Amino acid sequence: MFKKLRFLGLAAVLVLVIALAACGGGSDEGSESDSGSDDSGNSDGGDSSSGVELGESELTVPYVAWAGAMARTPLVKQVLEEVGYTVEPKQVDAGAMWTSVANDDSSFMTASWLPATHQSYWEKYQDDVEAVGAFVDKAPLAMTVPSYMDVNSIEDLKGNKELGEAVDWEITGIDPGAGVMQNTETAIEEYGLDKWELKPSSEGAMLSELQKKIDNEEPIIIPGWKPHWMFAEMDLKMLEDPKEVYGGEGDRIEAIAHTSFKEDSPAAYEVLKRLTEDYDTEMENKLLVEINNGTEAADAASQFLEDNPDLLEKWTEGIGE
């Protein structure tokens, strides 16, 4: 009886040893497999597959009806929608654009001009907003005329009776809240252009009047800025600005967001940062010329992304759902 029990006991021990050995082998095998996964780049938990979180996914983007903003905004919108956001563009004037972002009623904007043109807005709201990145590093502004006009500097306007009477002493402007309009008012004061007045309208109305005057080779003075399709389609020149009222070499056109944007919508912040790193004057000019030739802004943006899939991939890689 005892021999039988001893035999059964030895058998049980043997079975247990075999079982433990088998478990140990399985554990080693699993460790090697996990190590292999880590060596291949953490495919289950790495940044490239898990992605940056969307956070708040409904975004409002205010913009002003200026050519550049109307080209950039649809492009940004479509890229953000690629990674899962819902984007509502909202056309406003410059003051409302800055105020809505500073109050966190809007997520970000694509049309700030700093340091000169929107200086007053920056001074007012700088504690509530931050620059995410620049679409264009140098965007010059100045009084602008057709190249056939015999003036080369803002100083040439002072006391210029012949030219003044030919244009009714008026500078044809855009919407009154625009920074370039504020600069032009300052230029009138700084250069002593006593009889001259800045006539506000809209960008569309100004461009229509500019084209009409050029067609008849008549004089006209406008506040101009680059990049803009008018410089590609019309023979224009910017007047010299020795007092640098318009900011010298030019402003930065930047994406400005509320200070909470990065935390609220981290993926959108990352997309916007990447996009502004690649965006430049050449890219904007392509969009502007397409739009001026009759293509809807949204269609121009779609075509650009279709023609540049490498950029879209770069801007959205590892981001979103």
From TrEMBL:
Keywords recorded for this protein, A-Z: Cell membrane, Membrane, Signal, Transport
Ranges of Low complexity composition bias in the record: 38-53
Signal peptide extent: 1-21
Classification via InterPro entries: ABC_Gly_betaine_transp_sub-bd
Cellular localisation: Cell membrane
UniProt domain ABC-type glycine betaine transport system substrate-binding: residue ranges: 58-306
Gene3D superfamilies xref list: Dipeptide-binding Protein, Domain 3, Glycine betaine-binding periplasmic protein, domain 2
Domain of life: Bacteria
Region of interest (Disordered), residue spans: 27-53
Protein name in the entry: Glycine betaine ABC transporter substrate-binding protein
